Amino acid sequence: MNIVVLVKQVPDSGADRNLRTDDNTVDRGSANNVINEMDEYAIEEALKIKEAHGGEVTILTMGPDRATESIRKALSMGPDKAVHVVDDALHGSCAVATSKVLAAALGQLNADLVLCGAESTDGRVQVLPHMLAERLGVAALTGARKLTVDGATLTAERQTEEGYEVVTASTPAIVSVWDTINEPRYPSFKGIMAAKKKPVQTLALTDLGVAAGEVGLDGATSAVVEHTKRPPRSAGVKVTDEGSGGVQLVEFLATEKFV
Amino acid sequence: MSEVLVVVEATREFGVKKVTLEMLTLARELGSPSAVVLGGPGAAEALAARLGEYGAEKIYAAEGEEIDGYLVAPKATVVADLVKRVQPAAVLLASSQEGKEIAARLAVKLDNGILTDVVALAADGTATQVAFAGSTIVTSKVTRGLPLVTVRPNSVAPTPAAATPAVEQLTVAVTDTDKLAKVVERVAEQKGSRPELTEAGVVVSGGRGVGNADNFKLVEELADLLGGAVGASRAAVDSGFYPHQFQVGQTGKTVSPQLYVALGISGAIQHRAGMQTSKTIVAVNKDGEAPIFELADFGVVGDLFKIVPQAAEEIRKRK
């Protein structure tokens, strides 16, 4: 099975994150950039499927030059190769334009299965899998907490608010996964060394037949008008329980009219 | 006045979700609200009265196996056709997984911008979003097409405005490509009559400090006494104390209730990302240095196994 995993480099969600003051895009220059956590689960799932059914795993990333670090990191887990869509014109692209670019790249990769994280930790927008499915005319099984592959038939458990749905489709398809689906492996030393030699193909917009004006800030379908930092919460009252902590807690709730 | 389409979010038992009432409230500022019901047979009839109470002037319905038996795509096709026909002033969907997914397909079909996790919407379509785990407030606009926004639950107070909506059944014309992802089974897992996590006015969450799955009944008891939902930190979920769909945090649900009670949760960034826009935060933790106290309006340092039962008893006494 030919599997492509979408990997996004994002600013570390464990550190302070900002938008740039000049153009309101995500400040990636000063951030500690890492693989979007949820994507590691997609990589793991791809590797498990390859181990069980054979095939090839390709990482597909759209991002600036520095995303190379995340691509190598992803490859160190075990995928075979990577494709990096990189072009200065892409800076500031909206989700609609991003899906256009990734769909064009996927169009060249002939994937049976595209795997990705259910959302990224920076935007948390969750729209890419269905945008890609819409553009490519393939099935999208999204929000999977379990995936079974039987020949060309995919069956997933899709997490819902009320429980889960069992959903099924045939390849080619896109599947997005939550972090409940597996436990991603740590790259081995051998894997890290091997990753340095794995092929990484770079593609520019001209290679994909997408015009520069369709992407980036100029081609964006939405715009940030302004942004401000939310004032941090200030700590309130802190008491140490000396036997009446529970009662004190309820007294507070009562003054706030929750009880 | 132009129509504003509100794509209705409801439970499988035909209960209108609160976020739908919030969307109807927002829609009234932008034009005349029209509710779009996409679901199983009988959905529109079952939901009509409630939608009317909150100002739906019209209801468009697309019902049946063609809509309900497949994931997302048929719904997007129906809404896209409707948008082309009625040329609404805006389209509002819930910022749930499915709401965002329908919106995603609409954006591509209509070559239209999309804004997700919107918490406020001005009459001119300017939206307010909360980014980076609640640390940044963003004002944004769709610059191509109509305002296509998904609204985060608990963003506005739903206010009633009685209307008597007429129901128009839509012709469902979905393609084979819309039917590639089939729903073969739906399994309900949520137990009890607690409110849904993202919509609840009160959320009581437990963390690693709760110790084990059995002890979570303490968390549940307090939640029930406060009429709230139960949440859990990632540490608690990873330890198997509570199911994943109740996880609050960066890799779980984002909640913004009136009251958030954190029990045995240290308050790592991972968790704070999902709850720090809550209006009032209360914390109980045995470690007085736990970061959760930096956000708590009221914190109790001590043993939650003593404090929580005492609080529960005190609430019962006051009832």
From TrEMBL, chain A:
Q: Which UniProt keywords apply?
A: Electron transport, Transport
Q: Does the keyword Electron transport apply?
A: yes
| Entry keyword annotation includes Electron transport | yes
Ranges where the Electron transfer flavoprotein alpha/beta-subunit N-terminal domain occurs: 23-212
Concerning SUPFAM superfamilies, the annotation shows: Adenine nucleotide alpha hydrolases-like
Fetch the CDD domains from UniProt. Answer: ETF_beta
Name the domain of life. Answer: Bacteria
Task: Give a GO molecular function annotation for the protein.
Answer: electron transfer activity
Enumerate the cofactors the protein uses. Answer: FAD; AMP
Q: Name one GO cellular component term.
A: cytosol
Protein family according to the UniProt entry: Belongs to the ETF beta-subunit/FixA family.
Protein role? The electron transfer flavoprotein serves as a specific electron acceptor for other dehydrogenases. It transfers the electrons to the main respiratory chain via ETF-ubiquinone oxidoreductase (ETF dehydrogenase).
What is its quaternary makeup? Answer: Heterodimer of an alpha and a beta subunit.
Q: What is this protein called?
A: Electron transfer flavoprotein subunit beta
What species is given as this protein's source?
Micromonospora phaseoli
From TrEMBL, chain B:
Q: Name one GO molecular function term.
A: electron transfer activity
Q: Which GO terms describe its biological process?
A: fatty acid beta-oxidation using acyl-CoA dehydrogenase
Co-factor(s): FAD
Q: Name one Pfam family in it.
A: ETF_alpha
Q: Which SMART domains match?
A: ETF (SM00893)
Residues reported in the UniProt entry to bind FAD: 208, 233-234, 247-251, 264-271, 285
Keyword annotations for this protein, in alphabetical order, are: Electron transport, FAD, Flavoprotein, Transport
Task: Outline the extent of the Electron transfer flavoprotein alpha/beta-subunit N-terminal domain.
Answer: 4-187
Question: What does the cofactor section's free text say about binding?
Answer: Binds 1 FAD per dimer.
CDD domains per the record? ETF_alpha
Q: What does this protein do?
A: The electron transfer flavoprotein serves as a specific electron acceptor for other dehydrogenases. It transfers the electrons to the main respiratory chain via ETF-ubiquinone oxidoreductase (ETF dehydrogenase).
Q: Whom does it interact with, and what assembly results? A: Heterodimer of an alpha and a beta subunit.
Cited PANTHER family: ELECTRON TRANSFER FLAVOPROTEIN ALPHA, ELECTRON TRANSFER FLAVOPROTEIN SUBUNIT ALPHA, MITOCHONDRIAL
Family from the record: Belongs to the ETF alpha-subunit/FixB family.
How is this protein named in the record?
Electron transfer flavoprotein alpha subunit apoprotein
Q: Which organism is it from?
A: Micromonospora phaseoli
